Amino acid sequence: MRRITRITTVGIASAALALSVTACGENSSDSGSGSGGDKAAIAYDIGGRGDQSFNDAAYAGLAKAEKDLDISGSEAEPSDGEGDADKVQRLTELARSGNNPVIGVGFAYAPAIKKVAPKFPKTTFGIIDDASVTGDNIANIVFNEEQGSYLAGVAAAKVTKSKTVGFIGGVETPLIKKFEAGFVQGVKDTDASVNVLPQYLTQPPDFGGFSKPDLGKAAAQGQLDKKADVIYSAAGLAGSGAIEAVSKAGKWNIGVDSDQYKQKGLAAYKESILTSVTKDVEDAVFNLIKSVQDGKPETGEIRYGLDKDGVGLSMSNPAFTKMTDVIEAVDKAKQEIIDGKITVKTAP
């Protein structure tokens, strides 16, 4: 097994320097490495590895590929306040270093992949949570987040005692509004009398709502003060702040992306994490890497929904699994979504 190389990038110059070092003297070419299968890279979204959520799920997929497929993995971190030019440089250097595939974690990489992918036609570029940028060598890995969020809404409506639940979104983007839409619909379809408090931490172009735990903590406290006793946070690293506040108040959290009950960084609060809306980012990353190694790289839209267990609710908290009436309601809703009896909204 080869070790994963983690690269912390601070601006364009240092990104280029760090990645040039990891190339270990290999010659770079504008046409890419061509073969693939030996080296793969992921470029993290805002918050980076250690967010206990989205980025960590992508890392798990790379780590699994390193172990099971004997590939050499590289990771590249974002820098605070960076622009598209930084992302272009990061992806360019990852491709020049022979990585194939190169995966951008998050929709923010769309403009950069649009510029870089045509210059490396033999390299597969993956982008998670975006289908707007397309190409012969681009794999668009997308999820039906609204479906998993609907199930979270069902659970929240069943367990709330105050008849008030909260939703915290990191940044008010179309993607995060899918989480809100599904959650609110799930709550209201289950119990129309339950009040939902939606709140966003920042507005574009300020994406700090994905990376600042203090913002999440303050938002959660505000919702707790309004009697919310179940809070669902889709806010990346900022969500950890919300989880802390909710846990200390003795109320229920619903996590996101990863099974946050199992995240080591949240171990002190795990008993408050009733469940998490999971996105199988880990397997999506692994599957893309494997497809390249097998010589049949995935391209185009690759969608993961409830029908493929690409989204869902985690069952790690024993307290949740003992709530038989809640589990029955969630299972019923899941099957009705799969069967097309329930159509989940993608916008509030």
UniProtKB/TrEMBL annotation:
SUPFAM superfamilies: Periplasmic binding protein-like I. The keyword DNA-binding does not apply. The keyword Cytoplasm does not apply. It is found in: Cell membrane. Pfam families: Bmp (PF02608). Residues 1-23 form the signal peptide. Gene3D superfamilies: 3.40.50.2300. It is a lipid-anchor. Belongs to the BMP lipoprotein family. PANTHER family: ABC TRANSPORTER GUANOSINE-BINDING PROTEIN NUPN, TRANSCRIPTIONAL ACTIVATOR PROTEIN MED. This is BMP family protein. It comes from Streptomyces sindenensis.
